[in-house]
Structures are given as C-alpha cells and as structure tokens.
Design a protein that fits this description.
The complex is a heterodimer of chains A (about 350) and B (about 325).
Chain A: E1 2-5, H1 6-20, E2 24-28, H2 44-48, E3 53-55, H3 60-72, E4 76-81, H4 91-97, E5 114-119, E6 144-147, H5 151-163, E7 168-173, E8 180-183, E9 197-200, E10 205-209, H6 212-222, E11 229-233, E12 236-238, H7 242-252, E13 255-262, H8 268-279, E14 288-292, H9 301-307, H10 311-324
Helix pairs in contact in A: 1-5, 3-4, 6-10, 7-8
Chain B: H1 2-14, H2 16-38, H3 53-62, E1 68-70, H4 76-82, H5 86-93, H6 127-141, E2 147-152, H7 159-170, E3 175-181, E4 184-185, E5 188-189, E6 210-214, H8 218-233, E7 239-244, H9 264-270, H10 273-283, H11 289-312
Helix pairs in contact in B: 1-2, 1-3, 2-3, 2-4, 2-10, 2-11, 3-4, 3-8, 5-11, 6-7
Classes of the chains: A alpha/beta (about 350), B alpha/beta (about 325).
Chain lengths: ~350, ~325
C-alpha cells in the first residue's frame, strides 16, 4: 500500500509492467523527456531508456498506427493521447484496424496495445479539450474500454490493460490526476477488466458511475438524507459488469446512472436498457440517467460547473425519484433554468 | 498448409523461373475471379491486379518470411507472391472455410502471418503507419527483420502516408514504403489528384532515399527492394520506392474504366510484365519457347482445380460470426 496521486499511480503501473516485460514500450507526445503533460510517465525514460520510451511528433494517426503494428508483431505498446479529442484523427487505427485484427486473422494476430487518454471537463480547457468521447468507442466490438476513477484503480486497471491481449482504451479523467489516495501496488493491486467495484453499499437505490462520476456518486450518497445507496464503479465500460449491476438493482429496486457526457448516446443508455429488460419486475421506480445536457462543454468556470452533474444535483434527482416514484426532469428542462 | 506456403515463398526467393510462374498464376487467378463474379458465384466486391504482377512477385522475392508486410485490399497478387495458395486466396474471395481466414473476410481481407502478411488493409493508407510499428518491433527487439508497407498512388495523398513515413524516418526504422503507382486512385487519374509526377520525390521531404522503379520489370523490382531491405537491415533506415505500373482492370468489380484514354491500355499491354519477363528468360536460356504455353496450361489447370475445391467447400457457419472478436 502506498499513498500517491493518480498520475503517479499510472506511472507506477506502467513502470511495474515495464520491469516485468521487456516488450512493453511507451510512446506519445511529450511522454519521454517531459515525462507527460500530466506527469503520467514520470521516471520512465530515466529507468527504461530511449529505445522503449519515446516522444512522437504531434501525429496521432501515425503513432496510433505504429502502436497497432508494434502490437501485432509482439510488443505491448502503451500510447498516450494527450486529450481524447485528438483521437478523432486516429480513430481508424483503433476501431477499424486494432479492434478487427483478431477477427481478420482467424484469431492468429493479437493486438495488445493500450491507448491512454485524458478525458473530461472541469479544468477550463474549453469545448475541444473537455469531452469524454467514450461514445466513439463503445460500439466497436474487439475493443475494451476502461475508465479510471482514482489512484487505486488507476494502478490496478492500467496494469490489467497492459497485460490484456486486446486493444484497450484507458480513459483518465484529467480532473483527478492530482487526487491522492491509497494504492495497493504489486501483483495484488491488479484489477481484472470487466469487473465493477462497489465502494459503498446501501438499500434504496443503485447509483452507477464511471470515471469522474464515481466521486460524484460517493459524495451524493455520503451526504444523503434519508436514503442509502449501492454505489457501483463500473471501471470497465466495455465489457461492463452486468451481473454486479443487476444483482444490486434487484435488491434496491431503483437505478440512477450518472454520466459526465451529454445525454444522447451516452453509455448509461446501455445500462438502463439492460436493467429494464432483465430486471423489470424488480423495479419500484423508473431507472433514470443523470448526465450533462446535449451541449458543448462551456468554458467559463461557473458555466462549466453548471454543465457537470455534481453531487448536489445527483442527490436532488435521487430524492425526487424516491419521493415521487417518477423520473425527475433534467435541470435544463426546468422552469427558469436557462436564465 | 504452412509448409506448402513457405515452400512457395522460397521458390520465388531463389528461382527466377518460379517468379515467372507465380506471375502467370496470379494473372490466371485474377482473370478467373472476374469470371466467378460474372457467374454470380461471389458476392460483394473485388479489386484485381492484372498488370501489376511484377510488383507483387518482385517484392516477395526480395523479402524473408519473417519480414512483415502490410498490404492493401488489392492484395490477391501480393498474397500469392508471398506464398499463399490459390485455394486460400480464392477460398477467401468466395467466402468458404478453405479461405485464408476461414472465409469471414472476403476479397479485401487476407492474412497469413507465417509469411509475414498482416491482415490486409481495406482503408487507404492505414497500413503505412502500421508498417512503421512493425519495424519498431524489429528495432526494439534487435532483430534484422524489416517491415514493408504496400500502398497505391491514391494513398500518397492521405495523412497516414505522411505521418507513417515521417515517424519511420525520425526513428530510423527498418521499413520500406512501396507505392504501387498504377496510375489511378479509384476512378481518378493520378494527375488530377497529385501535383507532382513522381511520388518517390516525396522521400526528400522526410530525408530518406526515394527511387522510381519500373514496376513492369520483376528483376528491377527485386533489385530495388533487395537494396532497400539491405539498407534497412543494416540500421540505415527507411526508403520510399515508387513502382510505376498499370491496372489493366477497373478499380473494382463494377468499374469498367470508361475514363481511360483511348490507346492507353494497349500501350501498357505492350510492356506486359509477364510477356516481357518470359521473353527475357527465353533469351537467357532459362526457359524454352515451348515452356511458355506448357506453363500457362498447367497453371490454368491447377487454378481451375483450386476453384473447384473452393466451390465444393462449406461456407462458414453462424458460430464464426462470434469467433475471434476478442483475443
């Protein structure tokens, strides 16, 4: 157990994998000499040298493609997309090449690559550097998607992602990089992909979060007045842990999914539809989604905070659901919200 | 299967007569494929390579099976040149279990890693940076393997071309970028999409060697790729080779190439890579005049037999749809 910031936990996870496996290499923009714009590759160049830790040109399509080729021929590349929006120019390599190589080789070619990317709002970077964009990837078979929520699972999930024989996207909420926490290091700290965590248990509702919204759910549940919640951290968005969610909802009878992304096309729609289909008879209220509105992430500090679903908003929506048994309107649908 | 494929590869690596026969085999299968489509025995599309056989065989003859090849969707010829059998190729085109990946890919998706062929790329330019990555593996592991990207002239204008070659150049990777300039990007003549006459000139922008090669001359292709491979294996970095060649057929099955200027096809027929090379081997005494017809007849029979075997083979079952999604 060690106390570290989330960015330090990521660097520690990569370093531990690099020590164990000489095939693990790291490349991306400013990840080597500068040790990463978010300091997520601290010390890697010094320990592992320039053959395995490399800076790339600002050319995501090029280095993502290189990761595909390196992985298909035996290395385990860990690449960094500085802001997930930059993946847009490299998406072909991830979803159309990497994710399909196993299928298009009769299972012979494996592509054990990791695409790490910082995601999310809250730091005033404006609408082209503040999205999550997991929706670009959730509909791509052959790809696994992980979203970390703090130092502990940053370490454990990053190590598991590097060990996985499939291409794995690891989405890192950048607002959490500086958050400190206790991290179980070493082999026992590795967290299997596809398993959710349940950091808090309760009786009245199941709160499902992923990435940055796990903290939101925990705060909302911690401050709750008159109700308790199971808080589920999905950890892996694809494939997601249906059993843990269904088991919880069958017991609590209620579900709220909390997403940072816009309402339309968000990952929570999958969770809700599965719960409705599989556990309809156990529901005592309609499942709800608590998301951002279908707008661009605003720049101004107050607007950006208004955009993000915070703990107070989550607690309010849950409170209304419990009181009325009906889906509460989103904040932007309420009278007077848009003044 | 693997030993037969490797033996076929070794033949084109070591024997110029075998290179001639492989070129004939590629032409024969490609002509047959167009016939199979016309008969309605295949669905989907296909991109054939008649006229470009010398590039395929010249490249394969200069590489080792441990070298990695990233090839395009116009890949039947390259796959066979590298060693894949007509049965594997035609089986894939017709979607049968005897295909190179069990019939789930179709014409554009061939793969056989025993001869270095990664899944062929149906996205223009995508294989360029992937080859850089395969070359990175060789560099990190300290082997003397090289990685080759084969792409068309159309790919020279997509971003992946620039990013992939630039990366290989700054990292001094053992890669060879081979442009098969067949004069047309889909339906557009190269002059309408590309402002310079020689794509090889773009090598200068990356500080690497660039060379224009006669893509209708299998010996010239072999020599150029041998030299680029030797350079890459020695640690001297990547090269860009431009093979000037010609696509006898249209872009894909449905394209009859009405945009082609009158007489252009006939001009290229005069420098047909198979006829030219056959005549050279006869002149050198490596082939008897009479062998030309004998070889053509034998290969035609072999290809026909392979096609019959494919026709008799099963299509993949429903379970195949769910296989190999994840490793």
């Amino acid at each position: 157990m060690a106390r570290m910031r989330m960015n330090q936990a990521i660097a520690a996870a990569i370093a531990d994998e690099m020590r164990e496996n000489p095939d693990v290499v790291v490349f991306g923009e400013d990840v080597a000499v500068a040790e990463g714009p978010f300091k997520t590759s601290d010390g890697l160049l010094a320990e592992f040298g320039p053959l395995r830790v490399r800076d790339t040109p600002i050319a995501e399509m090029g280095f993502m493609g290189a990761a595909v080729g390196a992985a298909a021929t035996g290395l385990r590349p860990v690449t960094e997309i500085m802001f997930v929006e930059f993946l847009g120019v490299a998406l072909d390599q991830l979803v159309t090449e990497a994710a399909k190589f196993s299928y298009l080789s009769g299972g012979v070619v494996k592509v054990p690559m990791v695409m790490r990317a910082s995601v999310g709002a809250g730091l005033g970077f404006g609408c082209q550097h503040s999205q999550v964009m997991e929706s670009w990837m959730v509909g791509a078979p052959g790809l696994k998607i992980v979203m970390i929520s703090g130092p502990h699972n940053a370490y454990g999930l990053t190590r598991a992602a590097i060990r996985d024989d499939n291409p794995v996207a690891v989405l890192e909420p950048r607002i959490l990089y500086a958050v400190r926490g206790d991290v179980t290091t070493g082999a026992e700290g590795i967290i299997p992909l596809g398993q959710a965590a349940v950091p808090v248990s309760g009786d009245d509702i199941t709160l499902v979060g992923c990435g940055s919204t796990v903290r939101t759910c925990l705060e909302a549940a911690g401050d709750a007045d008159g109700w308790t919640a199971d808080v589920i951290d999905l950890q892996t968005l694809q494939p997601w842990d249906t059993e843990t969610v269904l088991d919880s909802v069958r017991r609590t009878g209620r579900l709220a999914v909390v997403e940072e992304c816009p309402y339309s096309g968000g990952w929570g729609a999958d969770i809700v539809s599965t719960v409705v289909a599989e556990a309809f008879g156990d529901l005592s209220a309609p499942p709800i989604r608590i998301t951002a509105p279908d707008v661009h992430v605003p720049f101004g500090k107050e607007l950006e905070q208004r955009y993000l679903p915070n703990a107070e908003y989550v607690a309010g929506q849950v409170g209304e659901l419990l009181a009325n048994g009906e889906s509460p309107p989103h904040w932007w649908e309420r009278d007077g919200a848009l003044v | 299967m693997s030993s037969e494929v490797l033996a076929r590869r070794e033949a084109v690596r070591s024997d110029r007569s075998a290179r001639y026969e492989r070129m004939v085999e590629i032409r024969t299968l490609e002509d047959a494929v167009r016939g199979l489509f016309a008969e309605g025995l295949v669905h989907g599309t296909t991109h054939t390579c008649q006229g470009q056989e010398a590039v395929a065989v010249g490249v394969a003859s200069a590489l080792r099976p441990t070298d990695t090849v990233c090839c395009t969707y116009r890949g039947h010829g390259h796959a066979m040149a590298l060693g894949m059998t007509p049965l594997q190729v035609c089986g894939e085109i017709m979607g049968r279990v005897v295909g190179s990946i069990g019939g789930v890919g179709g014409s554009m998706h061939l793969c056989d890693t025993s001869i270095g062929l990664l899944p062929t790329f149906a996205i223009v330019g995508a294989g360029v940076p992937v080859a850089a990555g395969a070359a990175l593996t060789a560099q990190v592991r300290g082997t003397d393997d090289v990685a080759v990207s084969l792409f068309g002239d159309g790919a020279a204008n997509i971003g992946a071309f620039h990013e992939g070659i630039n990366l290989a150049a700054i990292w001094n990777l053992p890669a060879i970028f081979i442009c098969e300039n067949n004069q047309y990007g889909e339906y557009s003549p190269i002059a309408t999409t590309t402002p310079i006459a020689n794509i090889a000139d773009r090598a200068g922008a990356y500080g690497i060697p660039g060379e224009v090669v006669d893509g209708q001359d299998v010996d010239a292709v072999n020599a150029a790729v041998e030299a680029a491979a030797a350079r890459a294996r020695a640690g001297d970095g990547p090269s860009l080779l431009e093979m000037k060649t010609y696509r006898y057929a249209g872009h894909s099955r449905s394209d009859t190439a009405p945009y082609r200027p009158e007489g252009e096809l006939d001009e290229w027929y005069e420098r047909d890579p198979i006829n030219t090379f056959g005549a050279r081997l006869v002149a050198e005494g490596l082939l008897a005049e009479a062998d030309v017809a004998t070889i053509a007849a034998r290969i035609s029979g072999d290809v026909d037999a392979a096609i019959e075997e494919v026709k008799a083979a099963a299509a993949p079952g429903v379970a195949s749809m769910f296989e190999n999604i994840l490793a």
